[in-house]
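Below is how a single chain appears once it has passed through the pipeline. First comes the sequence as given, then the structure the pipeline wrote out for it. We keep one example in the README because the format questions we get most often are answered faster by looking than by reading.
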Amino acid sequence: MLNFFRRIRKQLADDNKPLKYMRYAIGEIVLVVIGILIALQINNWNEQRKDRITEQKILIALQEDLLVNIKRLNKDIILEQQTINQANKIIKHLDERKPYNPSLDAIFSEAIYSPDIIISASSYESLKFKGIDIIQRESLQRSIINLFDVVYTNLIAETVRLENQFWPSSVLPMIHKHFRQTDFRELKPTNYEALMEDTTYKNMVMHRTHFRQLALNWKTKALHDTEALVEMIGVELKKTQKDQIFQ
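Resulting structure:
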């Protein structure tokens, strides 16, 4: 292309000998500028293409982490509901003054159980290292930041706060007072009659139920937000792949 412009420029310069060298010089400058602009455009296109490839890889990694989180949150929600159900069974059993039976040992343990909260976020850390602006769509940027920096962060912080506040001050004293502990899979009462009369223990279990309901609500919201983000990423990946086909 540059050779084509050079031939035209030389022909124009030869038509008027006095202006030959001036035209020639100006033509050279124009050709150099055109060459630089073309090179910059090609370089810019290559950089954009690299950014889109990087964006696609990060979105795929995010989607994989989010699918893992969905699986974990679903499992945790089931466990939280089971804990609430078992706690209600214990309270009902004690309030109705039903006799002890060995099957209660597992229920006593499950009534105070709390699942650990584990969130996969390595892909988000990679995104922050690369720069959030690598994601083109601003609404997707905001949704990613909100899920990881707000929803997940608050979920973990509040869950840990409640456990640290409640477990050592309320749960452990009741375990030491009323149960023969072999492991936490089963708790066998040392004196079932005394346990039935202990309103402090019943209050602890009821408070535990309240906290587990809070955790259940938080995890349910986190699950819905995670599913929504997976859907958004899926739409963006399809769009990116379609754009690559037509490039």
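The mean pLDDT is 86.

See the next section for the split statistics.
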